[in-house]
Magnesium transporter MgtE (Marinibacterium profundimaris), 926 residues
Amino acid sequence: MSEETETPDVVEEREEQAYALDRKTWAGILYALDVEDPELLESLTAPMHAADIADLLEQFNPYDRGRFIRLYSGDIHGDILSELDESLREEVIRFLDPDQLAEAVRTLESDDVVDLVEDMDDADAEAILGALEDSDRVAVQQALSFPEGSAGRLMQREVVWAPDHWTVGEAIDYMRNTEDLPDQFYHIVLVDPRMRPMANVTLGRLMASRREVKLADLAEESFRVIPVTQDEEDVAYAFNQYHLISAPVVDDDGRLIGVITIDDAMIVLDEEHEEDILLLAGVTESSLSEGVIETSKSRLPWLFINMCTAVLSSIVIAQFEDTIEAFVALAVLLPIVASMGGNAGTQTLTVSVRALATRDLTAANLMRVVRREATVGLMNGVAFAVCLGIVGMVWFGMPQLGLVIAAALIVNMLVAALAGTLVPVTLDRLGVDPALASGTFVTTMTDMMGFFAFLGLATVILL
Amino acid sequence: MSEETETPDVVEEREEQAYALDRKTWAGILYALDVEDPELLESLTAPMHAADIADLLEQFNPYDRGRFIRLYSGDIHGDILSELDESLREEVIRFLDPDQLAEAVRTLESDDVVDLVEDMDDADAEAILGALEDSDRVAVQQALSFPEGSAGRLMQREVVWAPDHWTVGEAIDYMRNTEDLPDQFYHIVLVDPRMRPMANVTLGRLMASRREVKLADLAEESFRVIPVTQDEEDVAYAFNQYHLISAPVVDDDGRLIGVITIDDAMIVLDEEHEEDILLLAGVTESSLSEGVIETSKSRLPWLFINMCTAVLSSIVIAQFEDTIEAFVALAVLLPIVASMGGNAGTQTLTVSVRALATRDLTAANLMRVVRREATVGLMNGVAFAVCLGIVGMVWFGMPQLGLVIAAALIVNMLVAALAGTLVPVTLDRLGVDPALASGTFVTTMTDMMGFFAFLGLATVILL
């Protein structure tokens, strides 16, 4: 075991396996804040990764966050800022004086600076851009000239490339003589004389080959070129689908202008998933650190739409007031019809939204999927119709009531299956994220159709 | 532009940017199946990535799938099998004769074979293991000896490592003289004399350094060791949180036994997300290729639980039959109370489940998050209480009815906030996936409490 590598950090990190801030460290840090002991704070936070310190800041209440930054302020470096949730960045940046901020951002790679400034207001962004060296600032401004959420925002501009006629020896000599190779790179991009990417060569194969071997003969099988304007969601999909590690980015003329690596794609994939899961529940904010007012506001629109659709369902019920007055049992059973339809609809909807995201549901198999979901809905509808028909019959002693709820349930489960597939597919065709608003549409349909079928049948059969 | 690199595949792949099977190709393939033209099929599928051919097989109906495999059967290679959805693998494997199967799996890396056989029944798994060469079979069997879903199943056993006292020159000479380096590797793992990993050196930094530089001086900052028994979910979290590209896997004594790379972690992350999003909706199957019977069966348990809880809510309503008989308007408004509470609860629940998954919600900030959600719930409750109070008053001309629905709504939104946070946290503490069953628990609470508050208040105030 040599001295250079076995630093305390490594030991500490190896011991910590759950990757969560343990209670002891948490308590220690709060104690350090209480007694205002910067050295204790330093010793507790030194082994922590920037991402964990960012998590710590996110979990603090605003008071503790302020105390932490004041006691720690010498060292809030760029990595912590770029790991921090967007909703907190501006708050933390306000604690830093201009010199500290400049120092912090100068350590960042240009794609991280882009990530940092793209959501800021102009004054804050200017302050950060002003702190950068000229060449870095130009790189960031060029990246910002691409549309938000495009490959251009995601890529690094530093690419290691070689003409496609080079040999292994030429590539190694070139790399050894180049001063400023990127910190992290995994491939050499082979380009033709017009700078168009032709293939990737992994560094591993390069190392394992003799000097006289042609780079072109080492080309990797899995090779994709990403257009700079491509949506980052499609970029993440390509990395996931084709197991890419890095992919060259090209401009409209097909010329190499940057590279995207799998770690960036993984972050996008994670964000897209988060967005889908939250949108399905009608949540647009994404952070626990968001304030009460913002959170409350961000959830209002969805609840408001839900209120309107719930009133629509009530209007359906109101048409049958006389029937309900005659048979109060109907009011008792109403929520069951709504609940079963809503649940079955949500199941189908979620499967469809996922299948659209993974491109497993396409025009080619849409009709087959709809038929499958309808059949499943009918089968489950019949199963629960039998159960609930018996419940209705036994509970209220009315065989016809059992018949009514059974028939309504079958209708509603079929509506749920159709709405759960066709609503997200339709939204997707219209260019709307299928996760958005699908939930309300589908449950509105199952509620209204369920109530109408149940109360309508009751009126015909029972009255 | 040189001949070797500009293959038809590359051109084809560059042109296809949407990453989805286009309609023309799809129609062409179906035509090839209809006229039974293996050459046309070959020419259409040749440019396709194995992952896309697997998608194609998934989107076919069983009849076309059979026709495709018969016409294509010479070439269903291992990559396609390992990309294929689990529910279809056994169906496709049954079309292959033992020689074809043996040929198919021999081309796979050992971790892909593990992925292939771990969900098979014993006879099929034996057939595949029997087709492997001895050394590969041993590797697969060793991997299978680790628990399912552990780092041991995920890792590759082929690691490039070096003693931590080596220089760049020694490492390069070693690699150039080693016959069977892995196809894809990005780091050299430095180990101490007891084979314990000390640091990672990226190949890029290695290439850029002079021969006499010590490897230890090039060690990467971000370095994590993964215990072989660690849950794959934690592995994926670590890669995502700490931006790892590859990480050494160690046995109980801390000795290097394998390596996990970011592409494996990305697949796990994707699967975990899929599981969460589906579980939240009460779906346990994950594939559109699953048959109708299996799908129907897999959705029944959740719907059954939902039926039972819906009946519980009905029982609450049944206690107030007299009140409803006196004021049928109550039956009309009931679904609104349930729907608003259910939606608010689902919003809070989803945020909590995500925050637990990303470790943003911990013991340290639980109380603060609960207070925040309760405050948001109360604020939104009051906002909608005013709206719906007015609706109730105007619609039915009864001021007291407006008051009742307003009060019930505030109670219900508060219940939704508390249940939406505390239910998933409790499940998580009990070691249950918080996404599982949270939905039913939360909506049952909001339904029952909502109906009880609404009808109870109505009984007190209106009767």
